[in-house]
Amino acid sequence: MLVDSHCHLALPDYDADRAAVLARARAAGVRAMIDVGIGPGSWERTLALAGREPDVWAALGLHPNDVAEFGLDALDHLPPLLARPRVVAVGETGLDYHWQRTPPPLQRQAFVAQLALARARDLPVVIHCRDAYDDLLALIAAEGGGTRGVLHCFGGTAAQARRAFDLGYAISLGGPVTFKNAAGARAVAALAPADRLLLETDAPYLTPHPYRGRRNEPAHVVLVAAAVAAARGTTVAAVIEQTGRAAAALFRLPLTDAVAAGAPAASPQ
């Protein structure tokens, strides 16, 4: 039940070979992929991909780095899209104080608004955070009552991870957990409760070792599973099973057809 809980396969990066990328993911044992649309320019592409592929589901949100470009009014268009078939989450949304493309107060407004959308639709929230974990966790505590979700590609501290778990949220780990200097990420992988830990690729970004520097793709989530298994002192099969169940529960994916019926995941190379 290998799940890539966060990828961007609808991006133009895959227009030339998307079918082959999907085939490689399936051959590697990936049973479900959450494709994340980050703004008005990608929402329809994400919906179309999820509508075509039985093992792809959609998340739709306004990325914090794009709020200034599209404005808060863009969120008015989200409710009817969130009601469409195969939409399983709001996001990605969150806070990004690294790039400062959107003033932090405006980012916070957009994040709180999307928490409210998720609560109204009873959908989980897919959260992006960079250099802003304390503010983000404080906003979830203050404004996120009745919500659930995942902090994708988690890059915070062990204490911040525990705070997220206390708030009822999960975390997801991606390619960086395979890097040599990722002791912090591996420590978080070791302490995370099995039902609060997901795997992802963030493809086409954050490619794991040994393919770092190349375009990422969902098949590489097997390498993330191997690194997490080593950090937790368990088997790759156990990590795939536990994280797959956690993803299926969070996104309410059916444990049939594409998610559960495929062949076992391939061994990482």
Protein model, in words:
An 8-stranded parallel beta sheet has the order 1-2-3-4-5-6-7-8. It is 41% helix and 17% strand. It has a single domain, classed as Metal-dependent hydrolases (TIM Barrel, Alpha-Beta Barrel). Helix 5 (104-121) packs across helix 6 (133-143) and helix 9 (221-232) packs across helix 10. It has 269 residues and is an alpha/beta fold. The protein has 11 helices and 8 strands.
Brief summary of the model shown:
41% of the residues lie in helices and 17% in strands.
CATH hierarchy: architecture: Alpha-Beta Barrel
What is the CATH first-level class name? Answer: Alpha Beta
Cα-based radius of gyration, to the nearest Å? 17 Å
The general outline is globular
Share of residues in strands: 15-25%
* CATH homology-level superfamily: Metal-dependent hydrolases
Order of helices and strands: EHEHEHHEHEHEHEHEHHH
Integer count of domains:
1
Helix content: 40-55%
Give the spatial strand order of the biggest sheet: 1-2-3-4-5-6-7-8
Number of strands: 8
Q: State the end-to-end CA separation.
A: 19 Å
Multimeric state of these chains? single chain
CATH topology: TIM Barrel
Largest sheet geometry: 8 strands, parallel
Helix count, per DSSP?
11
Blueprint (SSEs and pairs):
Blueprint: E1 2-7, H1 18-27, E2 30-37, H2 40-52, E3 56-60, H3 67-70, H4 78-82, E4 87-96, H5 104-121, E5 125-130, H6 133-143, E6 149-151, H7 158-166, E7 170-173, H8 183-191, E8 197-199, H9 221-232, H10 236-251, H11 257-260
Parallel strand pairs: 1-2, 2-3, 3-4, 4-5, 5-6, 6-7, 7-8
Helix pairs in contact: 5-6, 8-9, 9-10
